[in-house]
Amino acid sequence: MNRPLKPVYLEEKLEEIRSDGHQDYRSKSLPTWCPGCGYFSVAEGFTFALNRLGIDYKDVVVVSGIGCASRFPFFVSTYGFHTLHGRTLPVATGIKLANDALTVVAVGGDGDAFAIGGGHIPHAARRNINLTYIVFDNGIYGLTKGQTSPTSALGFRTSTTPYENGDEPLHPLMMLLSYRASWVGQAYAGRPHHLADMIATAMNHRGFSYLHVLSPCVTFDKTDRTYANLGMQVRDLPDDHDSGNLMGAMAEASHDDAPALGVFYKEDRPTLDEVMDATNKRSTAG
Ligand SMILES: Cc1ncc(C[n+]2csc(CCOP(=O)(O)OP(=O)(O)O)c2C)c(N)n1
Ligand code: SF4
Ligand SMILES: [Mg+2]
Q: Which residue of 12, 174, 237, 265 lies most exposed, with the fewest beta carbons within 10 A?
């Protein structure tokens, strides 16, 4: 018997949110992600974060590359730009520099960020572009049906590594810390409330904020980054963690077997648009 598909998007829920004085940031396009994909938590967390920060959706642009994660702009009712594979950050940078009143959030998968797009990250971080970059790391290429990615674990079997992955994975948090991203945090799709908090905190930072989200691909990874495994591994950063201490942040980030959740590092320093404004002023003075 064919059962009618029930929309996940309920009109009553929308009304409830509106009558509460909140905006609903979910779009009318239903997510095309597989049931159980960690990305639903990110989308939900994002709408909570925008409500908490009180940002109007007309003032937000979500920029993505290509991949399952990069479908994100279709499923939130902000402005969106689905760009080319790996070119999220250059486009996001251009948007922010053209109109710095906009809140710019760049999103994408681990392949988009660290394989084809990896060359852009160091420069966005060191120049402290005032935007948020959320990478949904499932350790695999989901959209193209399960090939290894730069963050796939050693020994992981995929369609491209049937005899086990022998490539050492990249370490995104260590990379971002050494590139001097001015805000670096980690969250987990299986802890949606914490994730929502972390998205809001990252977006509230002035400067380049990098949020790494550990997220299971339930369709192509049945053995490694599963909810069961990640749920056992993740831990909170210690209460006495000093997010102003870069070396301390690196030490916490280096515990590969027990990924910590929370804000690893933050610092306050001039952003790219501030530096450019100052340069403009100097060049036009006298
Ligand atoms: C220039 C270019 N090269 C390759 C591809 C094929 N391709 C599309 S998505 C993707 C990887 C997606 O993996 P990831 O960024 O981790 O996103 P996920 O699907 O896992 O969310 C690749 C290789 C492409 N679309 N464009
Ligand atoms: S293939 Fe994997 S990453 Fe893509 S939507 Fe399905 S579960 Fe999510
Ligand atoms: Mg991926």
A: 12
Residue 15: predicted pLDDT = 59
Largest CA distance in the chain: 79
Q: CA geometry: angle at 196 spanning 191 and 197, to 5°?
A: 100
Q: Can you give the pLDDT at residue 148?
A: 97
Residues of the chain with pLDDT under 70: 1-24, 286
**pLDDT (tens digit, 9 = 90+) per residue, 74-118?**
999 899 999 999 999 999 999 999 999 999 999 999 999 999 999
Report which ligand 2 atom has the smallest distance to the Cα of 39. Answer: 8
Q: Quick one: which ligand is closest to 221's CA? A: 2
Range of the domain at 187: 31-284
Query: For the purposes of burial, counting CB atoms within 10 Å of the CB of 257, is it exposed (0-12), middle (13-18) or buried (19 or more)?
Result: exposed
**From the CA of 282, how far away is ligand 1's center (Å)?**
43
Ligand 2 pocket check for 33: Cβ under 6 Å: yes
- Helix 39-53 with 192-204: angle, nearest 10 deg: 50
Q: Which atom of ligand 1 is nearest to the CA of 108?
A: 15
Protein residue closest via CA to atom 10 of ligand 1: 67
Structure confidence at residue 16 (pLDDT): 58
Domain harbouring 223, CATH code: 3.40.50.970
Count of structural domains within the chain: 1
Per-residue model confidence (pLDDT) at position 18: 55
Q: Is 109 in the pocket of ligand 2 (CB under 6 A)?
A: no
- Report the alpha-carbon distance of residue 271 to residue 104 in Å, rounded: 14
Query: Does the residue 165 lie in any domain?
Result: yes
Residue from 85, 88, 152, 225 whose mutation best tests the ligand 1 pocket (most atoms within 8 A of CB): 85
What predicted TM-score, i.e. pTM, was given to this entire model? 0.93
